Structure formats: C-alpha cells, structure tokens
C-alpha cells in the first residue's frame, strides 16, 4: 500500500472550502470554546522547557509566513547558523570560530556577564531567525545552543590546534546539528508524543507518510498540529533562584523587541537558570511542569505584544490560519488515514472520536453548542485529542503524535550535515538535561 504524500500545495488531506466557510461564519462561537474552557487540575505533564524547545524546532522547520529569507524545512539549525560562516545575520568571532555573545545589564541582583544574545544598537539580536526573540525563554534557549557550539569549538581546538577557525566552525556546527537531532528524536519526541505511537513509529521504524526532500513540511503540521505548544505556556515562571513568578507579560517584554524594560540588554537578574525548566541534578523536582495540552490557553496568550502598541490573540491567529488554508477537520484527517491503514486503530489506538472520549458532559455541550463536535477545526481537534488521551493532556494523542513523529523524523533525515567526526564526550548526551549539564 502506497504511503500518504503531500499534494503539490503541501496538503496531506484534501482542503475543505465549505468547512472553512462554515468555521469563518461560526468564528466567534469557536473562540468561545477556548474562552470558556476551564483550567483542569490533572497534575504535572512534561517539563516547562519542552514548551520552548518545541518553539525553537517549529521556527527551524517552518519558515516564517511571508519571509523572503531562503530557509530549509530540514532540521539543520539554519535558524541558529543561517547560511553559515559568511552570513551577516550571525555574530561570529572569526578568530575563534565561535558565536559572539552579549553583555547583560547589571541590575543590582546580578553582575554584568555574557549571558545574552549579541545585539545591535537598536537592541535587536544578530540572529538569522527573528522569531527566536519572541520571548525571553526562547531567546535564552537560542543562546544555550550558541554556548553549546562555543564549547565544542574549545574541544576541537584542544584536540587539533592547527585547524583554522572556519574549519572549527564548520565541524562544530555539524556536531551541534547531530547531537540536536539525536536529542529531538530520543528525548523531545519521547516526552511530547503518545508512548505507543513513539514506539511504533520511532523505535520500530513504521512509516505511513512520505515527504519529499527539500520541500516544506505538510501544511497540516505547520498551520495546526505543531501549534499545540501554545497550550503548554504557563502564566508565570521561576527564571532563577531570585526571579520567581515572572509573569508572561514580562517574559515577552524581556527581549530586544520588548525593550528590556528600558534597559539596553537583558538584566543580569533575569538570566534563565535551566534547572527550573529541565530536570537537572541534584534536585530534579525543581523543574516546573508545562501546562497541559488542551483548549485552556493562558490569558497572556490572548494579548501577545506585537510592536507599536499592537497585540496578537493566539487563539484567533491559529483558528484564522486554519480557515485561510482551508484545512480539513480533524475527523476527516483521521478517517482518511484509517481508510488506508485500518491496522492503526489496533496498533496505536487511532479512532475518529478520540477527541471526546474523556470529556465531561459540560465540555461536550460546549463543543455541541459551538457546532464543532463533529467537524472540529484541526488545531482544536489536536488539543481535544490530547485532553482525551490516557495522559489527560500530558502528551499528544495518537493522530497528532503520528504526524509529529513522521514529520520531525523526515526533517531530521533530510538534513545536510556531512561531517562524521564527533567529540567523544558528546556521545553521552541523550537528553536536553545532559546537554545543559555539559555546557555548564
């Protein structure tokens, strides 16, 4: 049986113009589902760091809508490295082959250190993917990978002092790419996806979709499914031992575009300590949990700063994107897959009504009254499926997990890295916690 392939426009499932018209006419009612959805108390899901790791991955494999900058949809970290050594959108110490990092502003809490991105006079970071300054935590994750690169350069210099800075840069990039992809497959997908799907697709190697090399990932992935991370965002975060309960509004403001509260760069007292986002020894429990994957979206996500006094409502943005691209309903997508692969209902528990199996009567009535119970917008379907999964929103459900596992695996396989040498100590890194501990 042939694998499911995207059409010429990048759709895995036939677009549905009539459904898009219906959802457009019913837009306010659909938005009310999110506004009325109550915050559950289902315990801890994945760690908070996975929210922003996922956002970084999304920015690397899904070029910004309307961008004229040439980008790859492979997971080759061009959001970190751009086109390489000669790219003006990366700040390099060309005498070493390292990324330049920027000074923090001393704020009476912490001293000025180089724990910020390198910035221009207008405070914008010199990075090839401007979306990686959408919020403080994401920009600090970008910096973490720059520091990872720099430490690898130091290791290469110790092993082979005669290497030129440009060769060290290229070898370090290939090392970073290789380790990053390994961690995405072994650590990120394992935590984010349904365990049965992860075992079936990643561990056992089963395939149901085929994506062409050097083409964008499917529209359903970028316009809906991988936007599940917006539901993981918390209302506040502990950033370090001193900066506790920092609000989402401040998280957005502690960036170049956000203005740093009038400072020139990130205040030293707001530098992210990753032990509060990923489990790091000796006290693993310090790492906070992310939100659950469900239709509850934190209030701050309804008013994301967008510059010049404007804000973005992420619920409206994601629903409108589904309408604009005329995405098929979640039920239609699942039905199409099961028509071709009936065994998936047995092998991974894929069923058309997975989005409602564990909802209560009040939640069912909310969906019914909003006329989306049986023809659910794809993004909402993904959130509901996760809520109804055995983990109650701790991970994605079977349908979304299948698409995420196959799409991300394809993005990893289509990467361009060719350098085979790897620093010996990097073979011991199998989780983001391992990487953070190694960088120090």
Can you tell me about this structure?
The chain is mostly helical. The chain is built from 16 helices and 8 strands. It has one domain: Haem peroxidase domain superfamily, animal type (Myeloperoxidase, subunit C, Orthogonal Bundle). The strands form 4 sheets. The chain has a two-stranded antiparallel ribbon. Strands 3-4 form a two-stranded antiparallel sheet. Helix 5 (136-159) crosses helix 16 and helix 7 packs parallel to helix 15. The longest helix is centred in the middle third of the chain and has 28 residues, at 165-192. The relative contact order is 0.19.
Give the overall shape: globular
Approximate helicity band: 40-55%
Tell me the number of helical segments per DSSP (H or I, 4 or more residues long).
Answer: 16
**Helix/strand/pairing category:** mainly alpha
Q: How many domain modules?
A: 1
Q: Radius of gyration in whole Å, from Cα?
A: 22 Å
Alpha carbon gap, first and last residue? 49 Å
CATH superfamily: Haem peroxidase domain superfamily, animal type
Query: How confident is the prediction overall: mean pLDDT?
Result: 92
Order of helices and strands: HHHHEEEEHHHHEEHEEHHHHHHH
- Beta content: under 5%
């Amino acid at each position: 049986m042939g694998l499911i392939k995207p059409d010429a426009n990048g759709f895995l499932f036939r677009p549905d113009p009539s459904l898009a018209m219906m959802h457009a006419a019913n837009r306010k009612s659909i938005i009310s589902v999110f506004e009325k959805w109550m915050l559950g108390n289902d315990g801890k899901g994945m760690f908070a760091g996975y929210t922003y790791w996922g956002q970084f991955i999304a920015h690397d494999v899904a070029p910004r809508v309307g961008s004229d900058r040439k980008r790859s949809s492979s997971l080759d970290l061009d959001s970190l490295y751009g086109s390489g050594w000669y790219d003006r959108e990366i700040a390099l110490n060309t005498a070493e082959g390292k990324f330049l990092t920027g000074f923090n502003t001393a704020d009476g809490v912490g001293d000025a250190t180089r724990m910020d991105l390198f910035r221009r006079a207008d405070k914008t970071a010199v990075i090839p993917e401007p979306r990686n300054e959408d919020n403080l935590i994401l920009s600090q994750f970008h910096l973490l990978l720059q520091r990872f690169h720099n430490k690898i350069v130091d290791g290469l210099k110790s092993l082979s002092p005669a290497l030129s800075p440009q060769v060290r840069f290229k070898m370090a990039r290939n090392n970073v790419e290789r380790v990053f992809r390994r961690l995405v497959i072994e650590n990120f997908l394992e935590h984010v996806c349904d365990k049965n799907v992860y075992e079936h697709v990643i561990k056992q190697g089963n395939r149901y979709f085929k994506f062409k090399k050097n083409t964008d990932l499917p529209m359903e992935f970028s316009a809906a499914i991988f936007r599940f991370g917006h539901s993981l965002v918390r209302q506040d975060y502990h950033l370090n031992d001193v900066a506790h309960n920092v609000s989402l509004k401040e998280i957005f403001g502690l960036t170049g575009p956000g203005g740093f509260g009038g400072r020139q760069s990130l205040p030293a007292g707001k530098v992210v300590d990753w032990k509060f986002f990923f489990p790091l020894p000796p006290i693993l429990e310090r790492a906070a949990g992310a939100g659950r994957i469900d239709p509850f979206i934190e209030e701050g996500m309804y008013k994301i700063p967008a510059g010049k006094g404007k804000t973005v409502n992420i619920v409206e943005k994601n629903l409108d994107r589904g309408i604009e691209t005329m995405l098929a309903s979640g039920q239609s997508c699942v039905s199409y897959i099961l028509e071709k692969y009936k065994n998936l209902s047995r092998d991974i528990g894929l069923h058309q009504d997975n989005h409602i199996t564990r909802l209560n009567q009040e939640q069912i009535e909310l969906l019914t009254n909003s006329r989306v119970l049986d023809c659910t917008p794809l993004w909402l379907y993904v959130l509901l499926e996760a809520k109804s999964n055995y983990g109650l929103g701790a991970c994605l459900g079977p349908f979304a997990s299948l698409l995420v596992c196959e799409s991300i695996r394809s993005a990893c396989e289509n990467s361009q890295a060719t350098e085979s040498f790897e620093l010996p100590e990097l073979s011991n890194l199998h989780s983001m916690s391992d990487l953070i501990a190694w960088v120090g």
